[in-house]
Specification:
The chain is α+β, with helices and mostly antiparallel strands. It has four helices and five strands; from the N terminus they run αβαααββββ.
Length: 108
């Protein structure tokens, strides 16, 4: 399942983090949400911090929307119909040195 499909509706921050973690492979598919939920509520827990920062970076980049109830959903206007609009470029949002797909118009 694509991340945009699993975050199609408003989703609480901890569930959104869980779905992102599953998508990235840092949360094994056999782990239930209940078994990792505390990762998003413990201050200073590295996995929760990383996933929260990635969600926030995706909001800043326009891929996700966030509401006042700390819920996320995929931004329906962030998915262009043309793949030629996208290129591989250095990630300037989440992880220094990482590579991610970025909109050509957004990369300066």
């Amino acid at each position: 399942m694509l991340l945009r499909d699993s975050l199609g509706d408003w989703t609480d921050f901890d569930v959104a983090g869980y779905r992102l973690g599953e998508f990235l492979g840092v949360i094994p598919p056999e782990r239930s949400f209940g078994s990792v939920k505390s990762s998003f509520w413990i201050d200073g827990f590295p996995l929760g911090i990383m996933l929260d920062e990635m969600l926030e970076s995706m909001v800043k980049a326009g891929f996700l929307e966030k509401n006042d109830d700390l819920q996320y959903r995929w931004n329906p206007v962030s998915s262009p119909t043309s793949t030629s609009h996208w290129t591989r470029s250095p990630c300037r949002l989440a992880i220094p040195g990482a590579q991610m797909f970025a909109c050509v118009a957004c990369v300066k």
